[in-house]
Specification:
By secondary structure, the protein is of the alpha/beta class. The chain has a single domain, classed as Dihydrofolate Reductase, subunit A. Helices cover 28% and strands 29% of the residues. The protein has 6 helices and 10 strands. The strands form 2 sheets. The protein has an 8-stranded mixed beta sheet with strand order 5-4-3-6-1-7-10-9, sandwiched between helices. It is globular.
């Protein structure tokens, strides 16, 4: 069965979104130029070698995720640090929502059969792993449903003081096993965890 990998930026104090929306806390907020160091750029591209599908929230799709990386792929066709952008363009994309009738994006399907059912079916299909991107609400729903197999947190060297977490069950929590932790000269630490369930 394929794994669902949730990848998110995180503050050093564990938030994926700062309470102060004006706080610039991420080392790279997807603009140019990218201040990540060479090793992190290289390792980020390796992650995309293991996937062939991308699961997106409707909001992320509608707010321009696919168009942004499509432009990056077109603008930097020979730059090895943007190889992941070309893989985003080429990958199969799935947007789980009942608010859209059809997809307006290339290589992207709208799945409206309910998040849990659609994601479980997607994981049973043959192929490589699935990576998912979305906001706090979407990620929290995936976590609450027990659908995430691996977490990849890109921990930024900023404490935001308060904000939003994707782990919202204080009674049960969620046990994780650390798979790998890698620090980079730009200040990012990437922590990979496997979910052990509740």
């Amino acid at each position: 069965m394929r794994k669902l990998i949730l990848q998110m930026q995180m503050s050093v104090d564990g938030y994926v979104a700062a309470a102060n929306p004006d706080l610039d806390w991420q080392v790279w907020n997807w603009n140019d130029p990218c201040p990540w160091d060479q090793q992190l750029k290289s390792d980020f591209n390796v992650i995309f070698d293991s996937i062939d599908s991308i699961l997106l929230s409707r909001k992320m799709a509608e707010e321009g995720y696919l168009e942004h990386w499509g432009r990056a792929a077109a603008n930097f066709p020979a730059n090895p640090h943007y190889a992941f952008a070309r893989k985003i363009v080429d990958a199969n994309k799935i947007v789980v929502t009942d608010k859209l009738q059809k997809s307006k994006w290339d290589r992207t399907v709208v799945a409206d059969g309910g998040m849990i059912r659609e994601v479980k079916a997607l994981k049973r299909r043959p192929g490589r792993n699935i990576i998912t991107f979305g906001g706090v609400g979407f990620a929290s729903a995936l976590v609450a449903a027990g659908l995430v197999d691996e977490f990849q947190f890109f921990v930024n060297p900023t404490a935001v003081g308060d904000g939003l977490s994707i782990f919202n069950n204080p009674r049960e929590g969620l046990k994780l096993k650390l798979l790998e932790s890698t620090s980079y000269s730009c200040g990012i630490v990437v922590n990979r965890y496997r979910s052990l369930g509740k």
